[in-house]
Write a structure and sequence with these properties.
By secondary structure, this protein is of the alpha+beta class. Helices cover about 55% and strands about 20% of the residues. Strands 1, 2, 3 and 4 form a 4-stranded antiparallel beta sheet that branches. Strand 1 and strand 2 form a beta hairpin. Helix 2 crosses helix 4.
Length: about 190
C-alpha cells in the first residue's frame, strides 16, 4: 500500500479540529429522547422501521417516543440514541472543521530536501535537508484541502512544499519553483 504522509497529516488535523468542535456543546443538537428520536425519524425519511433497526428496538418503541409516551430511556438505549444522533452531526462538524482551516490557514512543519528551479537561473542540483515551520495562507490551505479531497498525495506535497519554501525563503511572486524530495516528516496545526 502506498504511503500518503501529507494526506494523512491533513486528515489528522481535520479529525483533531472536528473532535474539538464535537467536545463543545452543539447548538441545535437535540437533547431530549423525544427530540433525538424525532431528529433521526426526519433524517431517515420518516421511516419508523429504519430508525428502530438503527437503534435496535421494536418500531412501536420508536412510535412511543415520537408520541411523547416514553421519556426516560434505559441507559443502553439512551447511549445508542445519543451516538446515532451525534454521528449525523459529525458530518456537519467536519465541514465546520474544514471551514476553520480555510479561514485561518494552517501551520506546516516539514522536514525534507528542497531543491529550487528558476527559468533565469536554472536549478539547484544540490538540495539539502531542511526543517521548516511556516504559516500557509488561506488560499494555499484551500488548495491543500482540495488535493486531500481528491486523494492526490503528489499534488498535496507539491502545494505544501512550494508554500512553505516561498514563505521561508521569501520567494512569493518570484516565479521560482520548489521541489520537495525525500520527505522525512510533515505535520499541520491550526
Amino acid at each position: 500500500m502506498a504511503t500518503t504522509p501529507v494526506l494523512d497529516a491533513l486528515w489528522d488535523i481535520h479529525h483533531l479540529e472536528r473532535d474539538r468542535l464535537a467536545a463543545a456543546p452543539q447548538r441545535g443538537m437535540p437533547q431530549s429522547p423525544h427530540a433525538q428520536v424525532a431528529f433521526l425519524h426526519r433524517r431517515m425519511g420518516r421511516k419508523t422501521a429504519r430508525v428502530a433497526e438503527l437503534l435496535g428496538v421494536h418500531p412501536e418503541t420508536v412510535r412511543r417516543y415520537l408520541r411523547g409516551q416514553r421519556r426516560n430511556p434505559p441507559a443502553a438505549f439512551a447511549a445508542r440514541l445519543h451516538d446515532a444522533v451525534a454521528a449525523r452531526f459529525r458530518s456537519r462538524l467536519g465541514r465546520k472543521a474544514d471551514d476553520a482551516m480555510r479561514r485561518r490557514g494552517l501551520r506546516a512543519y516539514i522536514t525534507a530536501t528542497f531543491t529550487f528551479y528558476s527559468p533565469s537561473a536554472g536549478s539547484s542540483d544540490d538540495g539539502r535537508e531542511r526543517r521548516l515551520n511556516e504559516d500557509l495562507t488561506p488560499s494555499e490551505t484551500e488548495r491543500l484541502l482540495a488535493a486531500r479531497d481528491a486523494g492526490n498525495e503528489a499534488r498535496a506535497l507539491e502545494i505544501a512544499g512550494q508554500a512553505v519554501a516561498e514563505a521561508y525563503f521569501g520567494l512569493r511572486g518570484t516565479g521560482m519553483d520548489v521541489t520537495v524530495r525525500d520527505l522525512v516528516h510533515i505535520k499541520f496545526e491550526l
